[in-house]
Write a structure and sequence with these properties.
Helix content: 25-40%
Low-confidence stretches: none
Structural class: alpha/beta
Number of helices: 14
Shape: elongated
Bound molecules: zinc ion
Order of helices and strands: EEEHEEEHHEEEHEHEHHHEHEHHEHHEHE
Mean pLDDT: 94
Number of domains: 2
Distance between the termini: 25 Å
Radius of gyration: 22 Å
Largest sheet: 7 strands, mixed
CATH architecture of the largest domain: Alpha-Beta Barrel
CATH topology of the largest domain: TIM Barrel
C-alpha cells in the first residue's frame, strides 16, 4: 500500500492490458514512474492502491513493445530482390542480391537514408529493439526511442578469404561487435575466430542456420546449390566435407566448432531434426524465426511446435526487405498463425516480444510489462478489439489481423 506515491507516478487504464509475462487483464492498468514500470493489475486494484494518482484512459490494448531480432537495414536501399525466375533456388536469389549490390551505384548516404526510413517504419509499427546484421557500419544505434543493436557481419569461405577477414577484423576498434554469416559462406576457422571474439566481448553471436535444405548437403557431401554457388564465386573446390568434423547435420557441425551457447542466435532454423533441436535446447542457444522471408524464398517452414515442445521460445525477425516485402512483425505473427494453426497464439505474441528480448539478453528491460522494466509500452487500437470478450479472443485478434489500425506509444 502506498499512500504517498511519487508525483512522477501515473496510471494508464485500458480495456485490455496484455503483460505477456502474466495473464491478460480485462479493464487493466499499468502504473509507471517516468520510464519505468511500477506495476500492472486490474484497474480496481490499482486504483484502490493509488487513489490520488492521475488516470489516463486509453482505448484498445496496452502491451509490451515488439522486438525484431533479425534485420539487415543496409539492404533497405535495394527494395525487394526477386529471384530470376519463379522456380529458382535460394542460391539464385543470393546471386541476384549480390549482383544488385555490386552493380548499384548507391552512396553510403543513400544506404543510410534508406536504412533510417526502415527504422522509422519499424518504430511506427511498435518495435522498440532491433538486432541489425550488416556488412557496413552505418553508425545507426537508435532512432526516436528505438534501440538498434548492430553486428558487423563477416564471411569468407576459402583459406585466403579467412585470412583477409581476420586481418580486417583485427583492424576494427576493439569494441566493434562482429558476427558470422552462415556455415556455408564462412569457414569453420573464421566462425570460431569470430565467436571467440564475441565471447571475450560478452557480445551476441548471430548466424543464419539451416535456412535451406542444401546447407546440410554441402556440409555433409560438398554437394547441392551452395557447392555450385561457392565454386562460381571463389573458383575453388568446396572445402566440404571437412575431415575430422562430424558433418552429419548442420547443428552437430556447429556444436563441434563450439558455436552454441546462450549468447548465440541461430536464425531461420527451417531444416532441423529432433536431435538438432534437442542440442539447441541443451545448450540454451536461441532461435530466431523469419517466416516471411522463408515463404518468399520458398525454403520451407520451421518446426515451431517441436521447438516449443523442447522448451525453446523462438524470437522473431523480419529479415530484410530484399527477401520480405512486408517486413512487419505483425505480419510475421499472422503468417505463423496460418502456418501453425495448432500453436497456441499466446506463444506467438510472446515470441514477438519476450522471445526477442530474451534472445538478445535484454529481457530485464524489454519484452513484457513487469515491475522494473522500461516503460516501452504499446497502445494499440482497432475497431476489431471491441468484439473481444475474453483474453483468448484479444490474443487471437492481436496475432491474426496484422498491424492494428493505430499503433502508438504511451
Ligand atoms: Zn538474414
Amino acid at each position: 500500500m502506498s499512500h504517498f506515491p511519487k508525483s512522477t507516478f501515473r496510471i494508464f487504464r485500458a480495456p485490455w492490458v496484455v503483460p505477456v509475462s502474466s495473464a491478460v487483464i480485462c479493464d487493466g492498468a499499468v502504473v509507471t514512474d517516468g520510464s519505468t514500470i511500477v506495476t500492472t493489475g486490474s484497474f480496481s486494484d490499482i486504483f484502490s492502491q493509488y487513489p490520488d494518482l492521475p488516470v489516463t484512459k486509453c482505448s484498445g490494448v496496452l502491451l509490451p513493445a515488439l522486438v525484431n531480432a533479425h534485420i539487415h537495414l543496409e539492404l533497405s536501399v535495394y527494395g525487394v530482390v526477386y529471384p530470376p525466375k519463379q522456380t529458382s533456388s535460394m542460391c539464385e536469389w543470393i546471386n541476384e542480391l549480390l549482383r544488385t549490390r555490386e552493380t548499384a551505384q548507391f552512396t553510403i548516404d543513400d544506404i543510410r537514408n534508406a536504412a533510417t526510413q526502415t527504422v522509422l517504419e519499424q518504430y511506427n509499427s511498435g518495435v522498440a529493439l532491433l538486432l541489425d546484421i550488416g556488412n557496413l557500419d552505418l553508425g545507426l544505434h537508435s532512432l526516436r526511442t528505438l534501440e538498434i543493436h548492430p553486428l558487423l557481419e563477416i564471411y569468407g569461405s576459402s583459406a585466403e578469404a579467412t585470412k583477409t577477414a581476420v586481418d580486417t577484423i583485427e583492424q576494427l576498434p576493439t569494441e566493434q561487435a562482429v558476427t558470422g554469416h552462415a556455415p556455408y559462406s564462412t569457414s569453420p576457422d573464421l566462425l570460431q575466430y569470430i565467436k571467440k571474439r564475441s565471447t571475450q566481448q560478452n557480445e551476441l553471436f548471430s548466424l543464419h542456420v539451416a535456412e535451406n535444405i542444401d546447407e546440410a548437403l554441402l556440409l555433409k557431401e560438398g554437394k547441392g546449390c551452395f557447392a555450385q554457388f561457392l565454386k562460381n564465386r571463389t573458383g575453388s573446390k568446396s572445402l566440404f566435407p571437412i575431415a575430422g568434423i562430424d558433418s552429419s547435420s548442420v547443428v552437430e557441425y556447429l556444436r563441434q566448432l563450439g558455436l552454441m551457447d546462450s549468447q548465440t542466435i541461430y536464425v531461420h532454423c527451417v531444416h532441423l531434426s529432433d536431435k538438432e533441436i534437442q542440442s539447441i535446447a541443451d545448450t540454451e542457444t536461441h532461435v530466431c524465426l523469419c517466416s516471411g522471408s522463408n515463404a518468399f524464398l520458398g525454403v520451407g517452414t520451421a518446426r515451431l511446435q517441436v521447438l516449443l515442445d523442447h522448451g525453446i521460445l523462438p524470437a522473431l525477425g523480419t529479415d530484410s526487405i530484399a527477401s520480405n516485402p512486408d517486413i512487419n512483425l505483425w505480419s510475421e505473427m499472422v503468417l505463423l498463425r496460418k502456418e501453425h494453426p495448432d500453436v497456441n497464439p499466446e506463444h506467438i505474441l510472446k515470441m514477438a516480444t519476450y522471445g526477442g528480448a530474451r534472445a538478445m539478453g535484454r529481457e530485464s528491460v524489454y519484452g513484457s510489462l513487469q515491475k522494473g522494466k522500461t516503460a516501452r509500452i504499446l497502445h494499440v487500437q482497432d475497431d476489431m478489439f471491441a468484439h473481444a470478450s475474453n483474453d483468448t479472443e484479444i490474443i487471437d485478434l492481436l496475432t491474426s489481423k496484422g498491424q492494428p489500425d493505430l499503433v502508438g506509444w504511451l
